[in-house]
Every structure is written in structure tokens, then in C-alpha cells.
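Re: export button greyed out
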Amino acid sequence: MMEPDIVKDAEMEILLKDIFSIYDYDFTQYSKASLKRRLNRICIIDKFTSFAELRYRLVNDASYLPHFIEEITVNVTEMFRDPHFYKALRKDILPVLGTHPFIRIWIAGCATGEEAYSLAILLKETGLYERSLIYATDINPGALEKASRGIFPAGPMKQYAENYILSGGTKDLSSYYVSQYDRVRFHSALNEKMIFSTHNLVSDASFNEFQLILCRNVLIYFDKDLQNSVFKLFDDSLQPLGYLALGAKETIRFSNLDYKYRQWNNEKIWKKIGPES
Amino acid sequence: MKNYYKQTGILLIGGSAGSIHVLLKMLPNLDKELSFPIIIVLHRKAGSESILEELLRAYTNLPVIEAYDKLKIHHSCIYLAPPDYHLLFEDKEHVIMDLSEKVNYSRPSIDVTFRSAAYIFKTGTTALLLSGANNDGVEGMRSVIRYGGTILLQDPDTAEVNYMPKQVLLGMQVHEILRPEDMASFINQLNSKQ
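Workaround output, generated via the alternate export path:
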């Protein structure tokens, strides 16, 4: 697809200020290069031929906002993406969490929920599901609605099944869902311990204390300052000795909080060191 | 060597099927000091992890680094777009990762990186497109031209799969058409440090 340059840098700044002042959504600390692509993309999707049209619609039509949020944020996600990561969770991290009487996990930026269902399967197979709670949050209500239904397109399931096996799964992934034409519906037993809620990492506060926080491929869309404030939010929300998991190309290493975390075995998993260590 | 080539602030190399052996021919002959970073975007399977990085490293004295989010880039270094992420330029010194939809069935997409570079580096962009079997890269080359940059193309007669280079020749005026054995010396001459 030919990507046009409909929205210029200066215009993007104007639009982000509008959105913040009218709707209280703050995108000003998102990475400019990614966000500009999303803005140009939404102009194509909604057939705006100029920045002025996009701005007019957004400023004057509050009912357009949910669609705008849904398209401006990236909701691409997979089940068992980076199988070696899930293998590490299964073999090394979850057994440690299993020593707690009760396990609280936060998936921050869960998009349409593929990671939440992947994790639920791991918890089932390690026998921890019944005493776990998965808080799955996202800025995007539309994505959360999809996540809570547990219905996914059938197309990528073959790839997910391969990922699942590579992650150490021993069953058939299809034993967790029923196929319905071009979709699959995951068993409701998988999401009865999931709590879906909107949460904006930019502006919302810590809401609980967790032993594991997954936030994979979300921080890549934030600038360094915003990344630092989100790391602070995670730090406030993580128990001592809890774990933080990031995406394959993300790191806490260059943040202000690096000194409080130890990377686990070259995986994108960091352990929060205890208060005394 | 035309004068404006000396403006090169970033060298982009894109390729897919059949382009690795071209890189392996070029890399050993690059100068150790170049006045710009090199960004390589190759189509490859997700999960192929660091094998390509290690392979390229064995063929060059320049540092080869698989890019990650907010990485600061330096001259005389080679950066590889990681599998399954688009690579964008946030500014002239930093790259970012993007996991949005595939473009031309590809992630990383050559078009996405070339366009982003063209927007940031303008006339300082030099892009080299290698052998390939799909259209990804063609629009990127067009963007580089639109912003006043320089486009270089592997001679389609030398390409294992010549669909991609031929598509460029159909629609654009290419600054130079290069054979694999001539690429390194040409790139070395882009160096403004000489």
C-alpha cells in the first residue's frame, strides 16, 4: 500500500494537543515516527484527503474518538510469540510464582488478548490457574471487548500451534478451543480468571500489586521519558522479587530503574531485587 | 563519482531472496571508517534470531548490531533490522521498532524503513536495493528520490531473483546500477571522511 504524507509533523503536534485538551488522551509522548504512520493510515482508512478533515472530525465528533483510539494504537499481537520466552515462563518463572498462595499477573497493553490466553494455558498446564488472577488491561475498549470474548481468527492458529509446541506445550492447542467457520472460540474455563479493564499507561495509576507484569511490545511506541514513567508505574505495582517481562527488542537497561532489576538468563525478563539485597 | 554522493548521512540496503550472498561479497571490502551508519533490511523468517547477525559479522570488520528499540546509531557500524519488526527512524540518531501490520506481506518491510529514512535524512539518504522476488522496496526507493536522496540498484543481470530490481528500473531513474563486485568500492567512495 502506498503510504501518503497527509499529516505533517507540525500538524501532528496540533492534533495531539487537541486530543489532549478535549478528550484527555495524551499521545504527546508517543514515538513520532510510529504515530505519524498511524495517522496517515487512518486518513486512508477513513478517506480523509487532508489533515484539516481529520482534525475537523476528531474535534467535532466525540463518537469518532473510540474508532480513532482503536486505529491509532497498534493491536498486532500473537499467541506464544517468541516461544523461548514462554518456555522460560513455563519452566522457570511460574514454578517460583507457584510458591505464593495466590498469584496476581498484570498484562499491560493486552490488545485483543492473545497473550492473556497463552498465559492462561501455561497456568493451566502448570497447575496454578485456580489460584491465579490475570488482569488484562489496554487503552482500547474495542480490543478489550474482543479479548473478553475469547474468539480469534482461525487463520493464524496453525502458527500459534507451532509456537505452543516450541514453547514446551505437550498437548494439542486445538484442545483449548472449538472451531466455528473462520474463527475459533477458546473454552470459557480459560478466561474465568481474567479481569479485563481499560487502563491508560500514560495517565492511570497503579491499581494493585503483582508478582508478574507482562508488557510486551507496548513501550516501543513510547518515547524515553514516557518509558521511564511507565517503568516507575510498574515498579510501584510489582512486589519485591516480582518479575517484569518486556518485548524482544525492549529493555529496562537504559532506564532510571535499571539498578533495581536483574535480567533473567538473557530472556527479556527482569527480576525486581528485594529491599535488602 | 558525483559530488552530491558525499552528502550520504545514512546508507540503506534492502533485499530479500538471493541477496545474502551479495552482502557477503560486498562486506569484506568495505572501509573500516565510514562517515555514515549502514542499515540492512532483509526479508527473513521470524524466529531466525541472531544467525544472520553472526554470519554477517564473520564477513566484515565493521561492528554488526541487530537493532533494538531507541538504539543510538553511529557511523562505521552496520545495523540489521530484527525479524518481525519494522525499523523506523525517530531522528537522525535513533531507530525505533514498530510491530504494526505487515507491509507487502513483509515485516520488516523495506518500504517502511526507506520511507522513514527519506523523511528524516532527506538528501542525505542513499538506498541500495538488492535481489528480490516481491515489490517491497519499490515505493521506498520512490520516496528516497522524492526527498532528493540517491538510489542505487543491483544490476538485475547479476540478481538471483531480478523481479525487484526490474520493477525499480521500470518506473525510476536510478543513479547507479552496480554489480556485486563493484558495490564495496562504490560505497567506500561515498565516505566524506576520505
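The interface with chain A takes residues 47, 67-70, 82, 85, 88-90, 96-101, 103, 111-112, 115-116, 119-120, 139 of chain B (CB under 8 Å). The button fix ships in the next patch.
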